[in-house]
Amino acid sequence: MESTRLINNINVACDWVIKLLYLNLLWILFTIAGLIIAGIFPATAAMYTVIKGYQAGENVSAFKLFKKVYKEEFSRANQLGMVLLIIPVIFYTDWLFTSYLSGTMEMAAKGILLGSACLYGITLLYVFPVYLLNRKVFISIKMAFLIGITYPLNTFMMLISIASLLFLFVFLPMAGYLFLASGLACIVTFFSLRVFQKVEVQAGDKQKQSKSKWVMNN
To answer: What is the pLDDT of residue 215?
Structure first.
């Protein structure tokens, strides 16, 4: 029994390695096909869609689904990407502006900017998984931000996992070339789906409570 279980676990692990390797290759190719700047965001949306299907246990045809989502989300994903790129530019411009301040004002302004940059980084973690739920740019950014700060433990565990993976890639750079994008997306999707399940359960509990209150009042 133990040997059979071990073999099954090895098969599952090898299957995931092959899937992530292939998905990382698709992400690179489709990013290049969009001349990098215009291709990276729809390719990322497509990659998250395929990984979500994998983790949900669906029978996913990676190339067909990737290509389909890439085409469908090309415009909207790039709109999302433009907003995500504009925000750091604003931060950088404001940071340059702080050099004209002095003393306490400078320290306070830089502190606010650093705090805002951290919140922006947290938002980035969830923005693509959330985007795939509603396909709306600004709502996705807002919801990603709210989820990130509402579930700090989940966000912290995600950051630890990402840092561990990046630390591994420092010592195994070839693995980083082969699995960086898909590996990070796999981690983010895993923790994001856990949060989404919690949100659904909490929403269901609130509905039950509101229904019970309505019944008692009537």
So the answer is: 46
